[in-house]
Amino acid sequence: MAAKRAAARAARPTRAGPGAPEARQKREAPGGTSAWEWSAASVGAVILTAIVGFLIYEGVSRPPEARPLILVTSDPVVALTEGVYLVPIHVENRGHVTGAGVAVSGVLMGPDGGVVEESAVTFDFVAQKSTVAGGLYFTTDPRENRVVLRVEGYTDP
Hints:
Immunoglobulin-like, 2 domains, alpha+beta, four-stranded antiparallel sheet, three-stranded antiparallel sheet, 7 strands
């Protein structure tokens, strides 16, 4: 009779409680890493490698005593109103460091070589490998004179 009871118990379905081994197996996440997780990790690794590589390149390629290399060029003169003329200028920094307080002057030279008029402008900063635009105002027509542009100086930021 005991054998019959044991067989009946084995044939009966059991209720799995929260602590039963079957319930624990269902709650656990499946093993391994999904393809999406590997893809996201790969993209992150590529971005991190690119950033570190760029920083190393910038650190190695910059000369130890780098200075801004600042050039100034002009565009054609614009007559704004009677007696006001604008000489648009572009200030380019070809150097590896930023120049702050970049002072640019423009001088109108007459036919005899004398100074007719002067104008100046200061740019707050000109970042490395960049160009900024500005202008110089004159009351004498620059088209009738020679415009001489010059970078006066800069400060370290």
